[in-house]
Amino acid sequence: MLNEADLEQLGIEIDLNNSAMAQLGMDFNGTNCRSEEQTSYDLSSVQYTLCTYAIPGLNDTEVIVELKRFGSMDALNGSYQYESSHLFGAKGIISQNDFGDQSKFHVNSDDDYGAEFNTPGIYYYHLWFTKGLYMVHITSGGSEDAKGYIASMGRQFLAKIG
Fold this sequence. Notes:
The protein is an alpha+beta fold.
């Protein structure tokens, strides 16, 4: 998804360790990306890619990028509305519509569902946006300072998606 020039510009690197995904039982077979076909809630086909990155200057901060290409705007809109709002409270909203008409930038807060299970001192940023038939979800777990990296990654993906 990101080439070497993108990675250098953003100050991130490919995460071949994939520790976040390994905890979920997902094996990336020595790569940082995995692609597959999925089925949307309306039973239409979704092209799904998941990639892992790391921010080397921020101790153990991992970034996961989900890119989905939907077969219809209805499927995209329904998925965006559900995923970007489901389980998240209003306190953690950083911005809405700064990355397009359908975008939301959020950090974990105490009014999120399940917030009591978050590790203290770990910040989870989530950025969702859509462009055309694509929905992108960029999330990080680690340093509070990852906020700017996540925003920069979002702008980079917006520029790449045609």
